[in-house]
Amino acid sequence: MRQGVSPGNVPVYHGSNLKAIDRRVRLAELVLRCAICGFASLSAVLVSTDTQVKEIFTIRKTAKFTNMKALVFLVVANGLVASYSLAQVLRCVMSMIRGSVLLNKPLAWAIFSGDQVMAYLSVAAVGAAAQSAVFAKFGQTQLEWMQICNMYGKFCNQVGEGIASGLLVSVSMVVLSAISGFSVFRLYGDKKRKSVGGW
Question: What is the model's pTM?
């Protein structure tokens, strides 16, 4: 970008300023991806390791996440999001070590698409698990479904913690998708500015 002199009230943007903004964006992306990886792993572990045994008239019943398909979906989705986020964390770290800030267009589009898929996946998984949790907590009198959490309180509490972690993952993935979208469209914006303004 060309160095310029402002007449007094017109802001002048220099290449170094844009690089500083890019570094901040990359740092925010790295922090978000690390948080997503941690919360997604925590959610998957909390739900997948949750069991509670109850004896009802000498019959032992075990509550576990595989009894509810929505919880299986939540565990699988968070496992995929955690793995994807870990790979992206490694990519972010490598790009920072190499000093490369800007992405090329195909890579930026690939990251944006991957972030979109993971965001939709995490939101869908949390929504399904939350709906099942409401049925387990309050039952459904019209369908004669019991309030499962009255019998399996510990199981429901740990599942609730897992869903809460999954919710944080979903919100973070939505924010991260916006950041990766900004990275994609900024590349096209830079080209337009260069062709129009001669920067």
Answer: 0.77
Assigned token pair, 114:
């991957």
Backbone angles phi and psi of 144, in degrees to 5: 60, 35
Residues 18-58 have pLDDT tens digits of 667 777 878 888 899 999 999 999 999 999 998 877 777 77
Do the beta carbons of residue 50 and residue 159 sit within 8 Å?
A: yes
Contact call for residues 33 and 85 (beta carbons, < 8 A) = yes
What's 170-193 look like in SS3?
HHHHHHHHHHHHHHHHHHHHHHHH
Determine how many CB atoms are found less than 10 A away from the CB of residue 118.
25
Residue 150: enclosing H or E segment and its boundaries?
A: none
3-state secondary structure of 101: coil
Burial of residue 11 (CB within 10 Å: 0-12, 13-18, 19+) is: exposed
For residue 127, what are the contacts with CB-CB under 8 A and spacing of at least 6?
none
